[in-house]
Amino acid sequence: MPVGLIALALGGFGIGLTEFGIVGLLPEVAGDFDVSEAVAGYLVSGYALSVAIGAVGLTAAVARLDRKKVLLGLMLLFVAGNLISAVAPTYSLLMVGRVVAALCHGAFFGVGAVVASDMVAENKKGSAIALMFGGLTAANVLGVPLGTFVGQQFGWRATFWAITVIGVIALIGIQLLVPRPGADGQASLRSELAVFRRGQVWVSLALSVLAFGGVIGGYTYIAFTLTEVSGFATSTVPWLLVLFGVGTFIGNFFGGKAADKSPNAALIGILGALAVIMSVFALTAESKITTIVALLLMGTIGLAAAPGLMVRIMKYAEDAPTMASGANVAAFNVGNALGAWIGGLTIAAGYGFVSPLWVGAGLALAGLVVVATSSLSGRSTASTTSTAIAAGVGPRLEAPRSH
């Protein structure tokens, strides 16, 4: 594999660390700025909403520009945002830094995936993209617990300084190691935007919101759950988060295998299992043993949905993959913001630190209803169409190709 893919993966690692690294540091941030747990949680939801805006807005704005220059510009934005966060004297300025860093997130992965695939032969494109996205998974497995540990030992600002350094190294790596892409036949912006006229594309986006809202709804406030409900010491939180990270790594692998067979069937099973796991977690959070098991399973099942969600939307937008992937990243992060926001509301309302887990279970259940209804509706439509064609009436429609 080209060494330039490592630079892209390092950029993905830094971005993943920025998004989730603050989760384990929310108690320290809340105490430093004298804000409530719910207000501290807005640093997660604010980031996620900015990702959603950047994923669609920036991807559309840079669609016709030189992709290497775009990646360099996005990494500069990322470095600037984390530098602001590291020196922020107030909560408001910290939020500004989070927003600035978040704007590059969706566009980086959307554009980076295209650049990564252009760097290798046709039969290795999937592996190249997987390697680039592997940086994001590595951030969950290693970066988030390590970032939490660094923040607890040297202050939460130290984590943002470390991320800033990672961003600078990735920026240099992209400049030196990633080749400049040649001209190609990209679709026009009008063609890219045309996919949003399709109902199933919107169903896919809704599923992404609900699925990620479910898992992040519980995960955002997990540090409080672990210390205030389960009774773990604050110093153990980084190592407990390793379990969630390992789960995401496992889930991403097996979720992809399941999505290859049938994305709808995979999503039905995953969302149903996620609703059950988070409900059981909420009911047994006072037990340290069940908490450890539930944390691992929550990461495994929750992130297993990602491949199926991507495969599903690409099935209905195969002629405009750039905007479709950007929109899906936006939907993921709208879900992150929704889950974190509702979870914060339940805590502020006095329902306790297990209430975000119930929020996550509810959102996962809603996603299950949506995908099951859509799947049944699709089968019914296909059956009706086949019957009409067999009878010699109705149009002969070509079904979307599966991948």
From TrEMBL:
Transmembrane is among the record's keywords: yes
Q: Which domain of life is it from?
A: Bacteria
Topology of the protein relative to the lipid bilayer: Multi-pass membrane protein
**Which UniProt keywords are listed?**
Cell membrane, Membrane, Transmembrane, Transmembrane helix
Q: Where is the Major facilitator superfamily (MFS) profile domain?
A: 4-379
* Origin species: Streptomyces huasconensis
**Compartments, as annotated in UniProt:** Cell membrane
The answer to whether the entry has keyword Membrane is: yes
Q: Which InterPro entries match?
A: MFS, MFS_dom, MFS_Efflux_Transporters, MFS_trans_sf
Protein name from the UniProt record: MFS transporter
Major localization class: membrane
Q: Name one Pfam family in it.
A: MFS_1
Segments spanning the bilayer are 42-63, 70-89, 95-116, 128-146, 158-178, 199-224, 236-254, 266-283, 289-309, 330-351, 357-376
